[in-house]
Amino acid sequence: MSLSVRDLRIDIGGSRVVDGVSFDVPSGSRVGIIGESGSGKSLTALAVVGLLPRGARATGSVTWDGREILGIPDRELAEIRGSEIGMVFQEPLTALNPIRRVGGQISEAARIHRGVRGADAHTLAARLAASVGLPDPEEIVRRYPHQLSGGQRQRVGIAAALAAEPSLIIADEPTTALDVTVQKGILELLGSLVAEKGVSLMFITHDLAVLAQVATDAVVMERGRIVEAGPVAGLLTAPAHRVTQGLLRDSKATLWRKND
User: Fold this and answer.
1) Where in the sequence is the domain holding 118, given as residue range(s)?
2) pTM for the predicted model, two decimal places
3) Which topology term describes how it sits in the membrane (predicted)?
């Protein structure tokens, strides 16, 4: 299944924050959207799954497997979210429900979209927890989010996104709040899961070095517009736009500080 975005525009409070964005995420591909804070990259991702903030209006076209999904009723889009498109959010502590056990949150999409219930849901949650490298999964699924570390919570978020076996995972800056060691593990996990399961990945980030670890192609955004696009290898070796050049300098500086 492939995703196609054409001439996407997003307006909030009379201001255009995304303007004419177009890109594709072919089946089985790994595509990044990169840009500085305020570039519109996360809003673009949220528009795809119909989760824009109140007051935002999106126009243009978003097709999923050839079907137009931009502007369809939320009940129809809810059938696609989770079952066909999984979402991993930037801050798992706020994305997860603090008063629900981890296991129920991991298996939620499978309960809603696949009819998995009871002991089967618990078994699925534990299996997914194990698949994303969580220690002692039978114990982990009985815990609450605040009882886990930041890296463990992010792995829970990834497990939840995989529960209903989606064809596309959208990961919105999933490593931003994590230290470098945990970040490396999360990136390796996403890469291996995408390779093993054959799902597509749309990865949102502001860090070109991070993007290079998980994506093969990317679009670069500035002030709501795409300013450069192409293979990540080319963006790393011969960035054409000043924004991409600045992101590369920032990535190199970050790597230098981490290795210092």
Assistant:
1) 98-165
2) 0.90
3) Peripheral membrane protein
In whole angstroms, what is the distance from residue 83 CA to residue 131 CA? Answer: 18
Banded pLDDT at 256 (limits 50, 70, 90): very low
Task: Report the amino acid identity of residue 50.
Answer: G
**Could you tell me the pLDDT band of residue 215, with boundaries at 50, 70 and 90?**
very high
**Separation of alpha carbons 172 and 91, rounded Å:** 9
Whichever domain contains 219, its CATH number is 3.40.50.300
pLDDT value for 184: 83
pLDDT at 257: 46
